[in-house]
Amino acid sequence: MPRTDRASTVVVVVVLAVTVVGAGCVSFSGSDPLESEFTDDVESAEPPETMSATLEVEIELEGERETISEPVWIADDGTSRIGDLDDGSDFLRVDDGDSVWYYDGETETATSRDSNATAHTYFSFVYDEQDRYAEEYELTDVEETTSDGDDAFRADFDPPSNETIDRSIGVSVGNTEYILPFETSDVDGTHADSVELVTDDEYHFPLEYHVQDDDRSLEVSITYTDVTFDEELADDRFTFEPSNATAV
């Protein structure tokens, strides 16, 4: 059952929007063979054909915690679905390759825009972001681990000092759409002191993100659980008919 600590939060998040202010890159140390191998594997990784999972997000800021959980289905042709109305979701996002539909269960309204799935898929957005980590952050440690019982790699990154966490967090691909899950706390300008990334050992899909700002007592964790790769997904997962909603 999808859950959130606050009823008015109706969206899930995918990748934390972390921005470098100014020019310059930081290279990885490469002193450990596993570090070099991990970086090469991440930069050359290819996504699976399909993926289904539960996306779990936990945000804690100065002792105030917010949690969000939604099912996700993703295909390499750019189609994707976040949320399941039959399982109690209040929010639904469906990209059928032609249009992206957003449904708000509380107001029973649906909105849409043209899809950019052919140019920017859900997978490419996620993989491009972790490629940037490998290219621009200092990789301080890599070790073998598990995530939700599956073999994985955990990598610790030291971001540049001018790396900030935006208030917004991206839920979409292509035409960047930013959703604001922080309802009362302004986190603009918050600095990322550490970034931890956990990838599966086959596709190097980012199963977990953990970002921390020590000064603001901010921790953000994004975790995919119950993950399955390369299983056939029903076509109706990526369709939406707003017949019972008001299209706006």
TrEMBL record:
Superkingdom of source: Archaea
Keyword Lipoprotein assigned: yes
InterPro entries the UniProt entry points to: LolA/LolB/LppX, OM_lipoprot_carrier_LolA-like, Sporulation_related
Keywords: Lipoprotein
Protein's UniProt name: Outer membrane lipoprotein-sorting protein
Organism: Natronorubrum sediminis
